[in-house]
Amino acid sequence: MVANDEVAEDPIQQNLMEMVLAEGIAVRFWPLQKVIDNIHKAADRQKILLVCKNPTDFNTLVQGGVPISRINVGNMHYADGKRQINKTVSVDEQDITAFRALRDARVECYVQGVPIEPAQDIFNLL
Q1: What sequence ranges are listed for the domain PTS EIIB type-4 (predicted)?
Q2: Mean pLDDT of all residues belonging to the chain
Q3: How are beta strands 70-72 and 83-86 bridged, if at all?
Q4: How far is residue 60's CA from residue 44's CA, in Å, rounded to a whole number?
């Protein structure tokens, strides 16, 4: 499930994301509030992978009661005003604030590009 207010309304971004998924994997594009309102209706047997555009969106979900305990952070591209903390992660002050709020909510945040790489605690990189 992709949780982001902008992506939920943008068919071009949705099409791009669907192209990289393996056949047979269903994807849903929901605004943040819809995720908050509906995630608790999922059956225990369901496996749900949440994808968000930034840590602020994850923080919104956590503050809204979505049970998130771990986040694999990746592909936060460099832009003006951001500093690179890992080969695939660049952050600005808004990102850092959101990560700190997630840490305070006891959400583990790590960077791990592939399973054979060791996970790096994002808080050690900030």
Answers
A1: 1-126
A2: 90
A3: unpaired
A4: 23
